[in-house]
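B., you asked whether I could sanity-check this one before it goes into the benchmark set. Here's the sequence:
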Amino acid sequence: MTTEIDAAARRVLAACDARKLTVATAESCTGGLVAGALTEIAGSSSVVMCGFVTYSNEAKHRMLGVHDETLDRHGAVSAETAKEMAQGALARGKVSLSVAITGVAGPGGGSAQKPVGLVWFAAASADGRVDLVEKRFGDIGRAQVRRASVLQALAMLEKLASTPLAG
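And here's what the prediction gave me:
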C-alpha cells in the first residue's frame, strides 16, 4: 500500500472511530482495494463491517439490490448505479456510511460514451445523504485508475465521516 493511500485510510478510520461510525464498501472496478486499504490497518475492525465486490451486473443486483432497470437504462458505469450500490451496501451492511465505485479501469472496455478512466463514486450515510462524483482519469493505465479511485473513495468517506449525521 502506498503511503498516500495508507494515510488516507488512517484518516477515515480515525474520523469514524471518533464518532463511532461503521463502514461498508461496494466495489466494482477496484475489486476490493478500498476495503483492503482500510483493513490493512490494525484496529480497523471497529469501523469496517463488510465489503461487497460486485464486478458483474448480476452481483450488483443480487448482493446490493441494484435494480435491473437501472442497469438496463443507465449501465453499470453510471451515477444511478453507483448511488444504488452505495445505498445497498448501507442497508445490507447495516452501517453508518458506505462508499461505492463503478468504472472502466481499462485497458479495454471503454466506449465513446464511457471511455477508459471513467469512474463513478457514491458515498452514502445512514441519515440519507448521498454524495456523487464523476471522475474522468483518462487512459492512464489500469493500476493508476484503480489507485486514483481508491484515493477518491477514501476522500469521500473521510468527508462524510467528518460531517455530523443529521437526526
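One thing to flag: The chain has a mean pLDDT of 96. Otherwise nothing jumped out at me.
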